[in-house]
Amino acid sequence: MNELSSLALTDPVAQMTPPDFPSNELVRVSLLRSLAILDTDCEERFDRVTRIAQRLFNVPIALVSMVDANRQWFKSCIGLDVRQTPRDISFCGHAILGDDVLLIPDTTADQRFADNPLVTGAPHIRFYAGYPLSLGDGIHIGTLCLKDTVPRRFSEQDLQLLRDLGEMTSQELRAVAAATSDDLTGLLNRRGFLSAAGQALELCRRAASPVAMLYCDLDRFKQINDTFGHVEGDHVLRVFAGMLRSTFRSSDIVARLGGDEFVVMLTNADPATVEAAVRRMEAELAAHALQSQRGYALGCSLGVMSFDGANLPGLDAMLAMADENMYAVKRKNRRHRRHRRHEDNTPG
Ligand SMILES: Nc1nc2c(ncn2[C@@H]2O[C@H](COP(=O)(O)OP(=O)(O)OP(=O)(O)O)[C@@H](O)[C@H]2O)c(=O)[nH]1
């Protein structure tokens, strides 16, 4: 290493580097929020990990940190008396960008962190080691991390131990994810929807931003099951879930409530945006009818309700209104089908 590059690495006046956003940021944040873990109480299964980590490594600070859109929030926290810090000064925001431990043996010798306010001021972090917590598919929602107020050496054995503890924590998070998702389609289930939509609704209420609720129920799905079998019925449910995923934005909350019923909550969506999304959905269904040669058409009844940001009702009321709207559409579709059958059977 020449003199200049060695200076650059240790230059104490170098500017702190805020963490980049990972390329899957939108999906990452919406999956994190769908866990409904943010701003919840402490839980023994996570506190156990930080207690073990603190004892094993003999550090003053051990955290299970969730990296949210603009902050890091601590699900478990030993040694700090705050539950969150801004993301742009967080170490964990950097750690979630990699697949392995981010190790900073001495923060004052690292230009990314030397003038970080968490280094120059309380809690005076001199050492950091953070392992990314993963929901799978490269979705890193936070870290298990250790901090100390003095520089430290970290051996290969220490690294392996931290990885093992981190994997244990990821498994706990994946268990939380499994309880809120639908096995067949991978969408949120009813429970996941209620918690994710409840959180999003509170945000929209605070920002007075408009919300729409879209309730979908497949038409004559029982007939597909009865005629083509349940395996084909399951395929239809997965195809429909895929259409919802590709039609709506990643900031919208899409779920299978049960059976052949699906729901989408669109956040910050004015009526024109909602209308455009419904048109896209109808176009997807029409394209599927043309392409698929499976002996049946895939149809659904859609009930849509838009709500003004200044006057948002509760989640239950929104769902009930959209459901009622969907049934009105379903009754109309049934009458339409009966009418068509009647016309087809009438000799011309
Ligand atoms: N293949 C499959 N079928 C399911 C699943 N969950 C529920 N069902 C079936 O979905 C069907 C829903 O029937 P209905 O509510 O009468 O719906 P429908 O036939 O679409 O009737 P309309 O809504 O009036 O058009 C029932 O036959 C259930 O057995 C599932 O996970 N897989």
UniProtKB/TrEMBL annotation:
One Gene Ontology molecular-function label: diguanylate cyclase activity
Signal peptide location: none
Record-linked SMART domains: GAF (SM00065), GGDEF (SM00267)
UniProt domain GGDEF: residue ranges: 209-343
Key words of the record: Nucleotidyltransferase, Transferase
EC main group: transferase
Record-listed E.C. numbers: 2.7.7.65
Keyword Transferase (UniProt): yes
Nucleotidyltransferase among keywords: yes
Gene3D superfamilies cross-referenced by the UniProt entry: 3.30.450.40, 3.30.70.270
CDD domains assigned: GGDEF (cd01949)
One Pfam family recorded for the sequence: GAF
InterPro entries per UniProt: GAF (IPR003018), GAF-like_dom_sf (IPR029016), GGDEF_dom (IPR000160), Nucleotide_cyclase (IPR029787), Rev_trsase/Diguanyl_cyclase (IPR043128)
PANTHER family cross-referenced by the UniProt entry: GAF DOMAIN-CONTAINING PROTEIN, SLR1143 PROTEIN
NCBIfam families on file: GGDEF
Name the record gives this protein: Sensor domain-containing diguanylate cyclase
Annotated organism of origin: Noviherbaspirillum album
